Amino acid sequence: MDVNEIKKLMEAFSENGLSELEVKDKEFSLLLKRQLTVAAAPVSVPQPVQAAMAVKPSAETSEAAAVVQDEDLEYITSPIIGTFYRAPNPEAEAYVNVGDTIRKGQVLCIIEAMKIMNEIEAEIEGTVVKVFRKNAEAVEYGQQLFAVKPL
Q: Are 84 and 135 in contact (CB under 8 A)?
């Protein structure tokens, strides 16, 4: 078997999604294997997600997603697409309100994505100046959630 024949076998192996192919001849043996990875099923356990920080939001944002800018403030933005929740459940008080002092690692809100509750934690310390989203509102990646005046 020459190199061109082996290349053709490799192409057929790849194109047809085979996981294993073995060819034997009097003079040689060829074994092709592909390691398949199995995706783990999502677990619905709340896990902290580091909030994306944007000190100076882009001026190229659309009018529909109005972005507030202030040089003295830092903005905590959504690290994922999902549904924004201010409290752990409907009967509970909000994690943070305007005027509250926050610390690094403190849970600020939850963003539900694909039935998984992701706790969003503060990466900075400061005072919450504004909450941009309403409870149970859909959020996109990069949308402002909180304005914080750093300590």
A: yes
Amino acid type, 30? L
pLDDT class of 119 with cuts at 50, 70, 90: very high
- Residue 106 gets which letter from DSSP? -
The CA distance from 127 to 148, in Å, is 5
| Domain 47-150 = CATH 2.40.50.100 | yes
Q: Give dist(CA 80, CA 135) in Å, integer.
A: 16
In whole angstroms, how far apart are CA 33 and each of 28, 40, 114, 143?
Answer: 17, 22, 34, 44
Residue spans per domain, the chain: 3-33, 47-150
Segments in 1-151 forming alpha helices (H): 3-15
pLDDT digits (tens, 9 = 90+) for 48-69: 655 555 444 444 444 334 455 6
DSSP state of 63: G
Which of 103, 93, 51 lies closest to 76 in space, CA to CA?
A: 51
Alpha-helix residue ranges (DSSP H) falling in 16-146: none
